[in-house]
Amino acid sequence: MFSPYYAWDGRRAPEEHCAINVALYGSPARWAMTERGADALARTADTFAVGPSALRWDGNGLDIDINEVCAPWPRRLVGHVRLDIETLNTRAFELESVGRHFWRPIAPLARVSVAMSQPDVKWRGHAYFDTNRGAEPLETGFKEWHWSRARLHDRARVFYDAEKRRGGHTALSLEFDAKGGLFERPAPDFVSLPQSAWRLPRVTRSAKSARLIATLEDAPFYSRSQIAHDIDGEEAVSVHESLDLDRFAKPVVKAMLPFRMPRAKGPAPKIGLGRKK
């Protein structure tokens, strides 16, 4: 959905514009998002492969085999990720009123095991898995949005605020528990966070002030951060994102994206459709 090549191609043939994005934060940090055409794509009902990387769903979780080259500095990014579902959510939320944009938090509570060989890093921890789908470009439906997800012991809290292009505001304040329950909760007030290095406004929901822990991703139209804020009387650490789609729609911004998102020419060798356990 953020592919400049797809936009320049008139948003035709989405199979010609596929990528698997991998980001490692901390040290060592890595970023890969190479776009490939339909000749490098293979998929079934429970598998999705783009070039040498692939994802496989087995009903209980997701196996991800990663074999990418980073950008803008070419370094290998190779390894395996296993995501195990703790809570499976089947409900998709309509983000605006004309049925063109939906968001589904597939696994609000999950566990992850990461084993990378290049670079050599391994860890286990909490995880989250969601998906967005739509029938039009994001910038057609929205001006901006702010989203966050926190793990609170045996539950997750998610805030999703979106300014719609056709007028109005989407405000979701959701709780998911370990038994699979989904609850709509009152949303705390908006609290401002420091602007990003690109002067992108960032806000979140919190009963008290919020604190920026780290900026993980910083682009002219998007930031991903780690924040601390008050949720239901408890200080929680959330992954937070802010997205400005007015900025994204500018031609100069799209022209900058290929530096982080190169497009491979010709087919790439496929590793197969996931790793079976």
Q: What's the helix-strand series? A: HEEEEEEEEEEHEEEEEEEEEHH
Largest sheet: 8 strands, antiparallel
Cα distance spanning the termini: 31 Å
- In percent terms, what proportion of residues is strand? over 45%
* Number of contiguous helices: 4
Using the alpha-carbon principal axes, give the shape. globular
Describe this structure in words.
This protein is mostly beta strands. It has a domain at 137-255: AttH-like fold (Beta Barrel). 7% of the residues lie in helices and 52% in strands. The chain contains four helices and 19 strands. Strands 3, 4, 5, 6, 7, 8, 9 and 10 form an eight-stranded antiparallel beta sheet that branches. Strands 14-13-12-11-19-18-17 form a seven-stranded antiparallel beta sheet. A hairpin with a 3-residue loop joins strand 17 and strand 18 (222-231). The model has no long low-confidence stretch (mean pLDDT 94).
